[in-house]
Recover the amino acids of this structure.
């Protein structure tokens, strides 16, 4: 059997019909419908899934599939690497059927590219793929914990692929009525390239739909810029009102005041509020020293309360109207 269109539907059908196991080796895997189909099979504790993908930015994108969930549900997961990347695209079903071809398990493959698969059940051919899969496992260490850090060490062509795949994913979420998820993906697209006017318009249209006279959702992510890094406190597009808390530590010895910087982490990060917590008790470097509580209400008022820890219990607060930060 060979297919040149509606490949996703056939893959899901084959997955649903499988009884014992799936062995999957694809370079890229971003399609949530396919991923949810294989996760569903793991509800059977006797079902085995083994998956090999490339460890790069496309497979680790912010709104990609959650490979950790596969691991946590007793699936077996392996990364290949660019130095000797696994470029196969095949799936072995129950050790009896092989599905192979040009098709990566991505939105681009399903919605944009010219692709093909063939489905074969000839035992000698299937055995060859089983042997190859076992060789791949021998040369790649099983992964138990997937890093949540999005990798950026890829070339421009992969960036183009990532953008295209994200765009298809966002439009699919909109068609399903998941506007806020689509807005999150549009924002991530703009973090890759903030000059895409059509993406800015699509994102803003969704934000304006929810935020008229009152703010139903946060129009962007809000966090704290510490000297040793950034911490997200209020997620983008979260329902309002919302309160988040973060704890910061001292980065200099014996400091008597702490500077506080609040940042909107939109597709272009920007500082929206700064103030100081003064007259604090000097402490060693690394001491948990300030608890910051950020509250964003439906009128668009962001209130920040800074409370000293492990000291004199000094308190400072400040607020800003985020309508002036859009």
């Amino acid at each position: 059997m060979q297919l040149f269109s509606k490949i996703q539907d056939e893959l899901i059908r084959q997955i649903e019909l499988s009884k014992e196991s799936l062995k999957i080796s694809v370079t890229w895997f971003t399609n949530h419908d396919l991923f949810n189909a294989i996760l569903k099979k793991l509800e059977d504790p006797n079902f085995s899934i083994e998956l090999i993908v490339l460890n790069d930015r496309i497979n680790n994108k912010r709104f990609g599939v959650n490979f950790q969930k596969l691991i946590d549900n007793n699936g077996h997961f392996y990364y290949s690497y660019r130095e000797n990347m696994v470029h196969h695209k095949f799936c072995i079903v129950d050790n009896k059927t092989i599905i192979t071809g040009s098709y990566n398990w991505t939105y681009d493959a399903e919605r944009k590219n010219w692709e093909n698969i063939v489905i074969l059940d000839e035992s000698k051919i299937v055995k060859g793929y089983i042997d190859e899969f076992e060789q791949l496992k021998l040369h790649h260490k099983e992964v138990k914990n997937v890093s949540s850090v999005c990798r950026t060490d890829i070339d421009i062509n992969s960036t183009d692929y990532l953008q295209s795949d994200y765009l298809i994913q966002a439009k699919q979420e909109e068609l399903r009525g998941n506007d806020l998820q689509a807005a999150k993906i549009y924002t991530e697209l703009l973090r890759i390239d903030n000059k895409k006017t059509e993406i800015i318009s699509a994102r803003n249209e969704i934000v304006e739909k929810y935020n008229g006279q009152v703010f139903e959702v946060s129009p962007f992510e809000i966090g704290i810029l510490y000297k040793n890094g950034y911490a997200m406190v209020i997620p983008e597009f979260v329902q309002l009102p919302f309160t988040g808390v973060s704890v910061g530590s001292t980065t200099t010895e014996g400091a008597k005041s702490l500077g506080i910087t609040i940042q909107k982490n939109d597709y272009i990060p920007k500082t929206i509020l700064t103030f100081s917590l003064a007259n604090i008790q000097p402490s060693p470097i690394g001491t948990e020293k300030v608890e910051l509580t950020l509250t964003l209400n439906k009128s668009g008022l962001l209130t920040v309360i800074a409370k000293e820890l492990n000291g004199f219990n000094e308190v400072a607060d400040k607020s800003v109207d985020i309508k002036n930060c859009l």
Notes: The chain has a mean pLDDT of 94. The chain has three domains: 2-143, 156-210, 222-324. Residues 300 and 322 are 5 Å apart (CA to CA). The first strand starts at residue 2 and ends at 3.
